[in-house]
Amino acid sequence: MKKINFWMASAAAMVLAAMAGCGGGGDGGDTHLPPTLSATLPTTATAGVPVTISGITTTNTTALTVDWGDGTQDAPAAVPTSLTHTYASTATCVKAGSCTIELAVLGWGPAVEKTGTVVVGPAPTLTATLPATGTAGVPYTVTGVAAANGTALSVDWGDGVKETPATSSTSLTHTYATSGSYAIDMVLTGNNGSSAEQKGGVTIVDPAVLALSATLPTSGVTGTAVTITGITATNGTVLAVDWGDLTTDIADVNSTSLTHTYAATGSYTIGMTLTGPAGSKPVVKSGSITIDTPELFINRYISGSGNNKALEIYNPTGHAVNLSSYVVELWSNGRGPAYTTPVATGATPTAALHLSGTLAPGATQLIVNYQAALTGLTSVAGSISGRNDNPTLTFDVTAFNGDDVVLLLKSATADTGVAPRACARDTSGVTSCTVIDSFGVLGKRPTTGASWGGTATPAIRHTLHRKAGIGKGSVPTATAADPWWDPTGEYDVLDSDNLTGLGSR
């Protein structure tokens, strides 16, 4: 059923009725002219946008009606010069693609009509997903763009940049140079002045600032793990470590330490790279490490109560070691060659102990003070007395109390047990042996009341255990500006008489 806007329905009915009653018994003297109609009908329209019948002129007219073809009819009270109508996208004729307009005027005789077809297109639609946040310098992407029934698409990014992408675009990308809040306005233009709009706001933040700190190892030996310690990674998402030997690890960014074992000697460059979210700048930390062949070293320095003192020597190599090429020396109170000069004339160690036998790979050799009373020391199978090789003397290489120097030396030839003994010193105090490990700095002595490591006296009445990752001894040096050596850089400090783990690395 048609919907009629008929403001003069009753009046028009009276007119039509009067007209129908005329002509039967008249005298034939009256002249009745038929109505005329002229108008321009629209041929195209867009749903939701008003269209107009323009240029309406009529004569001899008593009423005017229009059927818009979508179920709506108008009968204005007076004949207008134009009529306007808006087609809804839900109208049946709109869905079919066209509507038939019927414009009619009434007067004497038959009604006069003007008809036409108007092609009605659907209204433009525009949808898109606009993320609420983005990062400066990183492409910001609008996704899910769906532009239908439009002829042109424009985008105002809110930072002074405007673009006209294709209406077929499914995503749009823009890079904001600086942080801030921006209003995005997308407009799809259609026919007959129609349009659809999509708006949104975005907050652009500055990229994350990454920070990376760590302590890289500078030396090590083959077969023993080295460790990167003190790792702190801020705002990163991926932490990669290139160990320099064609091995790369991807680590958890929350790692505080990382270990690696080198298979071959040489110098390597360790490179750590922390990367983060898009837009952030990677942070790189690098350092050099020298990997040597493993060698015997002092594993424990035990300075317990009374004479409960001992040294533990460890074999980190993968083979048995002939101990007859090794000598332990004690230099009481650090006497000996000063740090500024070669060996002082006539300088000799307080005690020297030549080792013997073989030490299996991964095994230890315990040297115990001959007056020790601690059962944990005296009951260790295979331990040897630390007494001086000269049987007439009672000096002991373990007779240290924190301010002495202990050396582990290696001879090019095995000791024969007869003079000249391996690593023997000449009248100038010079030996042909190589010092491969040293507890303390030869020729120096800590200040009175202190030990190596300072007034905290870590080398007095404590057990010092070589830190993990160390596979070779070291020979500390001193200068006039920095004469003291701190063992806590290489040793973990345990309580007095603490023998935890004795006999193992």
Describe the overall structure:
Strand 16 (180-189) and strand 17 (195-205) form a beta hairpin. The protein is rod-shaped. The strands form 9 sheets. Strands 1-6-5-8-9-3 form a 6-stranded mixed β-sheet. Strands 33-32-27-26-36-37 form a 6-stranded mixed β-sheet, with no helix packed on it. The chain has a 5-stranded mixed β-sheet with strand order 11-17-16-13-14, with no helix packed on it. Helix content is 4%, strand content 41%. It has 4 domains: 3-19 and 34-121, Immunoglobulin-like, CATH 2.60.40; 125-205, Immunoglobulins (Immunoglobulin-like); 211-292, Sandwich (Immunoglobulin-like); 294-505, no CATH class. It has 3 helices and 37 strands. The longest helix has 13 residues, at 9-21. It has helices spanning 9-21, 92-96, 375-378, and strands at 3-6, 36-40, 44-46, 51-59, 63-67, 72-75, 83-85, 98-106, 112-121, 125-129, 133-135, 139-148, 152-156, 162-163, 172-175, 180-189, 195-205, 211-215, 219-221, 226-234, 238-242, 248-251, 258-260, 266-275, 283-292, 297-303, 309-314, 321-322, 326-331, 351-354, 358-359, 364-368, 384-385, 405-410, 434-439, 462-466, 491-494. With 505 residues, the protein is mainly beta. InterPro entries: Ig-like_fold, Lamin_tail_dom, PKD/Chitinase_dom, PKD_dom, PKD_dom_sf. Residues 123-196, 217-280 form the PKD domain. Residues 1-20 form the signal peptide. This is Lamin tail domain-containing protein.
